[in-house]
Structures are given as C-alpha cells and as structure tokens.
Write a structure and sequence with these properties.
heterodimer, A: mainly alpha, 14 helices, B: mainly alpha, about 0% strand
Chain lengths: ~280, ~325
C-alpha cells in the first residue's frame, strides 16, 4: 500500500526523528545529567561527557541551599490553581453566550477578546504596575493572579466556545419548553454535558498559568515568600557561587506537577487544543 | 428558541416551579459576558489607553508632565533604536521561518506510519508545556563554554580550541537566543501542522497514489495546499509570539552583550521597568502595539486570500 516504506526509508525516517527529538529533548537530558554530577565535577576541564560519580545528592541538598524552594513550588501551583478557578468562573458564562446566544455586537466583542491575545504583558506592564500599585496589590499573590487571569480569558473563551457549539441544542430547547429558566438550563443541562470540555479547557488554562508566571513575578512581586518557582529558582545563582547541579535538580522537580498532569491528559488536551486546525 | 415554544409550552411555563421572569435574550447574553468583559477592560484595555497617554508624558517615579511628541522624536532620532527595530524584525524573520520549517518537517515525520509514532508525539511536547523560564535554564547550561555539552562536543570534534561561551559574544548570543526561541515554539507549530495533516482526506492521497504520484509530489500538491490555512495561521501567531518573546532573551542574555540581542520588547522593559522611565517606555510600547496591529491586518488579508484560493471547508 501507499503507506509502506522500504527498509531504507524506514531508517531515514527514524534517523530524522532522532535528530528532531534530540533537538527537543537535549536541554532536559543536559539538565538531568548536570543535576547528577557533584558540583566540583561540573567544572572539570576539559569537558567530560561521562562522570564516574553520578549521585542524586543534589536532589536532597537543594532544599537546604534554597530553603524556600518548597514554598516556591507551592506558590507556583497555588497561583496557577487560583488563576484557573477565576478564569473558568469568568469564561464559562461568556463562552456560553458566544456559543449559543445572539446579541448585538457579538462578533465585535469576540474580536476584542481575541485581540488581547496579541499583546503579552510586556506592553502593558507600565500602567498595570501603576494600577496594581494604586490598588495596593503589588508584592502579593494578587499581583500575579490578576494579570494571569486577564491574559488567559481570551484563550479560555475561544476553546470553550468551540466545545459548547458541539453540544446539541435540542436538550436545551426541551428544558426551555418545560419552563426551565436560562440560568437553570446553563447550570443543569449545559454544564454537565460540557464537563469533558471544561476539563480540557481548565487544564489548558492551568498549564498556561504555570508557564506565564515569570514576567509578572519579576515585575510585580518583590516578596520572596510569594515568588513562584520560575522566578525563585534563580536564587541558586548566589553572590559567591552558583550551585548549578541543585538548580537543575530543582528545575526538573518544579516542572513535575505540570508534566504529570499533561502526561495523563495529553491525548484529550492535544485534540482539544488543535481542534481549530482540523475544523478549517 | 422561543419560537419553538408552542401552545403547550406556554401553558407549562406558567405552572412550572422553575419559571423566572423572562428577560430578553440579548440582555441575558450581555449579563453572561459582562464579568469577563469588565475584567479585560480594567486589566487590559484601560492600561492600553493609559500607555498611549503616558507616551506623551515624561512620567517617572516622581511625577509626570505633558511633553507632547518628545518621546517619539527622541526615538526616531536614535540610531540605536533603529538598530533595535531592524534587529527585532530579523529576529522575528529567522525564528518564525525556522519554526515553520522545523514544524513542517517534524509534523511530516510524526505523521509517517511507523511503529512508535504515538510515543514520539508525546516526546515532542515538553517544551510547549513547561514554563519557558525553566526550559531556558537548561539552555543556559547548554550554552556554557566550560560545562555545556555544545562547547564540549565542539572541542572534542576539534572545531574549537578552548571553551566557547555562546552567550558572551555579540553574534553567537543573538543566534543562540534564536535557537532557544525556535525550541520553545516548534512543538506547538508541529502539533498544529500534525493535526491539520491528519485532517486531510485519505481519498486525495489514494487517488494521487493510484495515478502514480510519488511521496514528494503528494506532499507538495496535496498536503501543503490542504493545510495552507493552518500554515498561515501559525505564521501569524508565531510572528506575534516571537515578536513578543521576552523570557528567552531576558534569561539568556538580558538583551546583551552590548545590546546584541535587545529586541523591542526587551528595550521597552529595560527602559520602563529597569530605569523607571515610564513615559519613554510607553512610547516604545505604543510602537509595538502599532506594529502588532499591522501584522494582524496583514494576516486577515492573507487569510481571506488563502481561504478564497484553497477554499475553507
């Protein structure tokens, strides 16, 4: 058949795949290798590909070098969870309205939401800094949660809207005929049906929130206790020395929460996120 | 919906315990959209307007006063700013083209019917999922002259005599940042292309195959035209994200050495947040907004064309 490859073609495909995946995974491999080497061996010259004394020491010592490390990881998860909850509360009704109801300026409003995706926080940092300052929210969790929510609302609406559009209308109409109120229909008919979609969108928002913390954290928050991991991890770069091996270990441990969530749900996530690509 | 409410429905409405005062659908819709809209207005739209206003002032930590177009005039005269603009476009051009090319190659490879493809698909995703800042720590290490595997391998191969610090030289720092940015963006582009390729009808390929068309011909004449709308979307989205890319450059080089990797975003951040020159920073931010709007218009124009030529199903 047309999908069959000759042995030579197979070798070629696997070779190219190997090169491609090496590029993608090299930083992770390198981080892992560095985390296993004792500090003094990291600085050996000439460069050694293999050390004879790999150990997991860095994974236990890192908690002492940066005592707040556990806190940073907690902060990352906490901020992302808060961002996800608030975003979903705002996104669910809006996405429903865009998917099902007709109202004046619907397309213009949707366009405006999507327009937000064009900017990163960097463009708005200056006034945002002053807004948060005047609200007294600088150097708090809110300083990272509020901008985080704002930049994830558009994506959330977009993803959830296309999911809700696929739910058959008949069920809602039946409930409406039976006299259910609009809010009741949304809560008792639409939301239960949309649970798979809500999970996909929720996880996508969570991953997005986990990924975008750095800029807001270094700009709006100076309080070490509230710092998320992507910002706090740079504490391993001390004034005297950099404990690189522990920094690598901490980085790998720090991405574990999102990686685990992702691995379990990757099939649904990728399908949900790329749905737009197939629909075209 | 209300049209489908017949005689029977109308009576049951009255007797239902769930009934509520009927409000107009439009009003209800606005009620649902309002919270999200309000949030965006306060946190995005208002600061955006405020950025415009600030760009006409000399706002600093102490206070501000109106200075007219002075900030813009200063920028237009600055040779350094011209270089930054030029560098930003070069950065965008390089990074976006590489992302699209690698994405196409990667998606084609992952789309090939070979054993193990499900595993390979998962292995491509990590850079997309993890925080960019964390991924960049790995790259910091890779680029290190003494301990990184890149310099190590190059020495072992005899390409260089001693350790080479990728981030310490003007040219290599810029290109290193490009490579890392490509690394960050490629997985998403790859997965979108892959999804699009899987959506192409098999009948087309089979018909071409029966006619004796080779793989390359089928790729060029079927795959590419069929996924063209997605290619165009990805091109613009990548362009916007690459233009806005902050973390990669900030963590790797902070825009250095000697501004060699300073793009517009980095320049804006340094001016406004680093030096507290809010007014001058705002003028740069406004220029960014204008450029981004132009990209979007170009995108909409092309998307329309593409949809006309290739037809959107």
């Amino acid at each position: 058949m047309m999908d069959r490859y000759s042995p030579l073609q197979m070798v070629g495909i696997y070779l190219c795949l190997a090169v491609f995946l090496t590029f993608i995974l090299l930083p992770f491999v390198e981080m892992f290798m560095a985390s296993l080497r004792p500090l003094e061996h990291l600085f050996r010259s000439p460069y050694q590909f293999w050390s004879d004394d790999f150990s997991f020491e860095a994974y236990s010592k890192m908690w002492d070098t940066v005592p707040l490390l556990g806190r940073y990881i907690f902060n990352s998860v906490f901020i992302s969870t808060a961002v996800t909850l608030i975003t979903m509360i705002l996104v669910i009704p809006a996405a429903y309205a865009f998917a099902r109801l007709d109202f004046p300026y619907k397309n213009a409003t949707l366009g405006m939401f999507l327009g937000v995706n064009m900017f990163t926080g960097a463009v708005l940092l200056i006034p945002l800094y002053r807004v948060l300052q005047s609200l007294g929210l600088l150097n708090s969790y809110w300083a990272m949660i509020i901008p985080g929510v704002a930049f994830l609302i558009p994506t959330g609406i977009w993803l959830l809207r296309s999911y809700l559009e696929k739910i058959p209308r008949e069920l809602e109409e039946a409930a409406y005929v039976d006299g259910a109120s609009r809010i009741y229909i949304l809560r008792r008919v639409v939301l239960p049906l949309a649970i798979p979609g809500l999970i996909v969108v929720g996880v996508a928002v969570f991953i997005g929130a986990y990924a975008q913390q750095f800029l807001f954290a270094i700009t709006f928050n100076q309080t070490r206790e509230y710092q998320p991991l992507p910002a706090g991890i740079f504490e391993f770069i001390g004034y005297q020395s950099v404990t690189w091996n522990e920094m690598m270990a901490a980085a790998l441990v720090g991405v574990l929460p999102v990686m685990l969530i992702f691995l379990f749900l990757q099939k649904y996530l990728v399908a949900g996120l790329t749905a737009g690509a197939i629909k075209e | 919906m209300s049209q489908s409410t017949g005689q029977f429905g109308a009576t049951s409405l009255k007797s239902s315990p769930l009934k509520s005062p009927r409000i107009s659908p439009a009003f209800f819709a606005w009620l649902l959209v309002a919270p999200a809209l309000l949030f965006i207005l306060v946190i995005v739209a208002w600061p955006l307007l405020e950025t415009f206003r600030l760009s006409f002032t000399n706002a600093r930590l102490g206070g501000e006063s109106y200075v007219g177009l002075e900030n813009y005039e200063k920028l237009l005269e600055k040779r350094k700013f011209h270089q930054t603009i030029y560098r930003t476009f070069y950065w965008m051009f390089l990074s976006v083209s590489l992302k699209l090319i690698l994405g196409l190659i990667g998606a084609s490879l992952l789309n090939a019917a070979v054993p193990g493809k499900a595993l390979f698909r998962v292995l491509v995703m990590p850079p997309w999922v993890i925080p960019i800042a964390i991924g960049c720590i790995g790259w910091l290490w890779l680029y290190n002259g003494y301990f990184g595997i890149l310099s190590g391998t190059a020495q072992w191969l005899g390409l260089i005599d001693g350790p080479f610090e990728f981030l310490a030289h003007k040219k290599s720092a810029f290109y290193s940042a490009v490579v890392t940015d490509v690394w960050v963006g490629t997985p998403m582009v790859t997965l979108f292309f892959l999804a699009a390729m899987q959506g192409v009808s098999r009948d087309l390929y089979e018909a071409a195959w029966v006619d004796g068309a080779g793989r390359w011909y089928r790729f060029r004449r079927i795959t590419i035209p069929q996924i063209m709308p997605v290619i165009v979307s990805m091109m613009l989205l990548s362009a916007i994200w690459t233009f806005n890319s902050f973390e990669v450059i900030w963590i790797l080089t902070e825009g250095g050495p000697r501004s060699a990797s300073t793009t517009l975003i980095i320049d804006t951040y340094k001016t406004a947040i680093g030096n507290y020159k809010f007014g001058e920073g705002a003028a740069r931010a406004v220029i960014i907004v204008i450029l981004l709007s132009i990209f979007s218009l170009i995108y909409l124009f092309f998307l329309n064309k593409v949809n006309k030529i290739y037809g959107s199903k």
